[in-house]
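tool_call: predict_structure(chain=1)
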Amino acid sequence: MSKYALYIKLEARPEKRQELESFLKQTLPVVKDEDETKTWYAFKAAENLYVIFDTFGSEAGRDAHLEGKAVEALRQVADDLLVAPPEFVPVDLLAQKVGLESEVVADTDVKKYGLRFIDGL
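tool_result:
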């Protein structure tokens, strides 16, 4: 389970939205090469607001991502594509559900039963 995450807020220049979207899509192969980056999402939250949200296996993995090729590339295009510098917010996850797995981080009062529900039965 990933306990560490990163929220990156990006406000695009109105005339540069398409370029930012293309940049984000082209960044995926770079992030795929990062072993400690467990999930990576880039999405449009509002007309000019974009967000990157990723999770990591360790705090060191998050730190390595912040020093890696994807973030470096973002910093290089930020002045041209963004209204303001990217806002990097490290976050610690409390609970998550990915696929059939769900977990609450460090909560010993929550029991996991390993149940699977099948639609139509």
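agent: The domain at 4-94 is CATH 3.30.70.100 (Alpha-Beta Plaits). Proceeding to next step.
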